[in-house]
Amino acid sequence: MGEAKKLYIKTYGCQMNVYDSERMAEALGGQGYVTTDSPEDADMILLNTCHIREKAAEKVYSELGRFKGLKAEKPDLKIGVAGCVAQAEGEEIMRRQPMVDLVVGPQSYHRLPELEAKAGQGQKALDTDFPVEDKFEILKSRPKAKRGPTAFLTVQEGCDKFCAFCVVPYTRGAEVSRPVIRVLDEARDLVERGVREITLLGQNVNAYHGEGPDGADWSLARLIWELDRIDGLERIRFTTSHPNDMTDDLIAAHGECGKLMPYLHLPVQSGSDRILKRMNRSHDRDSYLRLIEKIRAARPDILISGDFIVGFPEETDQDFEDTMDLIRQVNYGQAFSFKYSTRPGTPAAERAQVDPDVASDRLARLQALITEQQRAIQDAMVGREVGVLFEKKGRMDGQMVGKSDYLHAVHVTDPRAEIGKIARVRITQSGPNSLAGEIV
Ligand code: 5AD
Ligand code: SF4
Q1: Assigned CATH for 5-127
Q2: I need a labelling partner for 191 at 20 to 30 A (CA). Which of 79, 98, 204, 391 fits?
Q3: What is the pLDDT of residues 80-91, one digit of tens each?
């Protein structure tokens, strides 16, 4: 047997891409590849790309440019582009960057072994189909490597909502839920390999409606309650949710299910009813605020996180002030905010754009407000006791870093802090990006 071939994967964008990169590495593991952290050593470089905003795609092209030298030195080096840019612009990538050997979309990465073989024969390999076979099933059951304490698990993919700014319905396709049994099998397997916390992933994860063992459609809440019964699994999270799919059983689970963590990412995008309508969000400001109230009634200490877009076409100063006002009412513990980015092929791309300088000012103001809220919520943790799951060693001697129930990073220096274990920690300090505490 020859020496193992080396695979370097760089992942952009969302957590689903992180999950997909793991699956792709496993798929190529069957072809004799092991992963490496340095592109210089690699026999294959794979960029797992994101298409959600303009800059993301541009980054891919400049990254590819950086590998030109490597490819010249090592003609056998294979370069592949995967993910959502591959899906959207596969053919164009091959034209613009002739050094790319292989292009694979998010729905066909189980076919990577064949594509790799084709590229090995010096042919260009491109697959951006939406195949009927189940990529998750085909990739199942590779070697049972030990895992870290946290893992992602994709349960739902795609989106049927067609927000006017978003490419996801085009790159990831229609909404599909994986059957309950498959999810449970994968979860049990992860737990056997050392995982203590699972984050269920989906572009619209709370719209999950997978086929249950009884033949009926199961909701996300029902799936969570079933996962709750797995011994050794200590924590459950899910992301990303749409306000319209926040069903009563899921809200109730936040109050009743001990393993479901008190953190909810619930993007609203804008606080202006006019803009929400133009975004095709199908919820309004008031329904969102009432929903947050209901969720907090079920779980008063829940940490709310959100996504915001500023400078959406036709957004006026008043629309933006409405967003600021909504943020003040909700009080976010975490948020991701973006300047609107025109995506070709989406409805909003055709509309009157906001002056980029105006959009930048709004983004800065919004981010300042969010940072203030985030910091206040984090500071208020001082003196409280929280569960912390330790994930890795910290930078200082003897220090461990973990995540609290609320997803804050927490530093602890104590020999009892062990990777993969959960301890009760009293928070003693709040820094710019993390907390520090002592085991009680
Ligand atoms: N421009 C800016 N932000 C966008 N998002 C999605 N599409 C765009 C776009 N065209 C943001 C939304 C979404 C998050 C994942 O990315 O806030 O919730
Ligand atoms: Fe995009 Fe809207 Fe679907 Fe989220 S709900 S993936 S923002 S279309």
Answers
A1: 3.40.50.12160
A2: 204
A3: 999 999 999 999
